[in-house]
Amino acid sequence: MSIISKDISKAVQLLSSDQVVAIPTETVYGLAGNIYSNKAINLIFKTKKRPFFNPLIVHIQSAEALSDIVSHIPEKAKQLANAFWPGSMTLVLKKQSNIPDIITAGKDTVAVRVPNHPTTLELLKQLPFPIAAPSANPFGSISPTKPEHVERYFKENISQVLDGGPCKKGIESTIIGFENDEPIIYRLGALAVEDIEGVVGKVSIKNKKEVSPDAPGMLERHYAPSTRTFLTDNVSEEIKKHEGKRIGILSFKSKLDDLNIASQIILSPKGDLTEAAARLYGAMHDLDRESLDVIIAERFPDSGLGKSINDRLQRATYSS
Ligand code: TXA
Ligand code: MG
């Protein structure tokens, strides 16, 4: 029997009894538990096989609840929350003392966001506690953007995937930390850097080498298909290096005519980065199930969501 269901009251009941439930968000599906339940939070780590040094994101119902979770809100954090919540932005701020250490991996900061999905906002409204939710995938593998992806990963381990349809944004939230009250991007994501800068002015992007393993979302290899994946500016040239192999192509807008290609997914024939981001992980899941020897991904233009897509493609590769 399928574990996918739209029953919000069932999710409320499971979460209220220390269980974990997969929940829809506009970015990716999350594996959720009550932030104050040690049992539920341990279950999240166990189910995902996630190392305990990797902290979780707390999901709250509205920006008003932020002061229950964090002890200091810089002016620019207020401006960002007003501009983008509910939405695909996570803020890392100094935590309140009642936030359990297991959520923050013992750090004095906590990651928080208000997700923009009607089902999960309704769920949060009905729950008397916030929920912690990392992406609902085994550690290191591709994040789920459809309920079926979660079911495939965790059918044996969880009782419910709360069905909210396919995720509209399709890649994880953009994570923003603060140093001396100034924002700094820890993880590129579904909210473009340009949009953030439109509200708070120029922001810097933390070098991934500096962040790791503080924000393991920044780990070099992450979000990865099990098929060997290459990222290139020139797909035709890369194909020549894999003669005789079953090759899958993941490209932005143009179709390639090459007899060596076994399978090809074009993320947005009309060249729309938002559409490409929304389809990215679904395409990686699909190609990964086609018994290919290699996946060759085309590098995206380095602006707007193209920057975030390139970040994820880079982490999906073996060679850099
Ligand atoms: O879109 C999203 O953010 C999704 C949905 C479910 O909300 N969640 C998600 O969670 O991507 P997860 O656990 O896969 O990624 C959370 C990232 C990790 O890289 C973690 O290291 C970082 O957030 N993080 C959490 N707390 C942090 C903190 N206090 N300081 C720095 N990084 C933190
Ligand atoms: Mg993740």
Radius of gyration: 19 Å
With strands numbered from the N-terminus, the spatial order across the biggest sheet is 2-3-7-4-6-5-9-10-11
Order of helices and strands: EHEEHEHHEHEHEHEEEHEHEHEEHEH
* N- to C-terminal distance: 42 Å
Structural class computed from helices and strand pairing: alpha/beta
Unreliable runs, pLDDT <50, ≥5 residues?
A: none
Could you tell me which ligands this complex binds, including any ions or cofactors? threonylcarbamoyladenylate, magnesium ion
- Percent of residues in helical segments? 25-40%
- The amount of beta strand, in percent, is 15-25%
Q: How many beta strands in the DSSP annotation?
A: 15
Q: What is the fourth-level CATH superfamily of the largest domain? A: DHBP synthase
Number of domains: 2
Helical run tally: 12
CATH topology of the largest domain: DHBP synthase
List keywords for this structure.
single chain; 320 residues; alpha/beta; Rossmann fold; 12 helices; globular; binds threonylcarbamoyladenylate; binds magnesium ion
Write the layout of secondary structure elements.
Elements: E1 4-5, H1 8-16, E2 21-23, E3 30-34, H2 38-48, E4 57-59, H3 66-69, H4 75-84, E5 89-94, H5 101-104, E6 109-113, H6 118-126, E7 131-132, H7 147-154, E8 161-162, E9 174-179, E10 182-187, H8 193-200, E11 204-205, H9 208-211, E12 228-232, H10 235-240, E13 247-251, E14 261-266, H11 273-288, E15 294-298, H12 305-316
Parallel strand pairs: 1-8, 4-6, 5-9, 10-11, 12-15, 13-14, 13-15
Antiparallel strand pairs: 2-3, 3-7, 4-7, 5-6, 9-10
This protein binds threonylcarbamoyladenylate (TXA) and magnesium ion.
GO molecular function: ATP binding; double-stranded RNA binding; L-threonylcarbamoyladenylate synthase; tRNA binding
Domain YrdC-like: 5-191
Protein name: Threonylcarbamoyl-AMP synthase
